[in-house]
Design goal:
79% helix; mainly alpha; 4% strand; two-stranded antiparallel ribbon
């Protein structure tokens, strides 16, 4: 498949999804279930993406330095550290584990 065909199909698909979202009646968007779903869905998708990027390598489950970095970031979050500190802790721990393990 030509790359330009894929790009055009992606553009058309994104535009179609946008139009579909704009065509939903306002009454549907005001329902409590829809509001709760709209609030929780991005968090769930981000958590799934983080887990996939952390623990997957091709088709294998991998526990490596990335997992240590995520665990350190989780500990920093539990301790209520500021966001930039959480990121710094994750980077330092991941780099440290990679340096030690070679």
């Amino acid at each position: 498949m030509n790359a330009w065909i894929a790009i055009v199909l992606t553009i058309v698909g994104c535009y179609g999804v946008k139009l579909l979202g704009l065509s939903v009646p306002a009454g549907v968007l005001e329902r409590p279930v829809v509001k709760k779903l709209a609030a929780l869905l991005p968090v769930a998708l981000l958590a799934a993406l983080t887990a996939q990027q952390t623990f997957a390598a091709q088709r294998d489950l991998v526990i490596d330095a990335r997992a240590a970095g995520v665990a350190a970031a989780a500990a920093a979050l539990i301790l209520r550290a500021p966001f930039l500190v959480v990121i710094a802790v994750a980077v330092v721990v991941t780099a440290g584990v990679r340096a030690v393990t070679g």
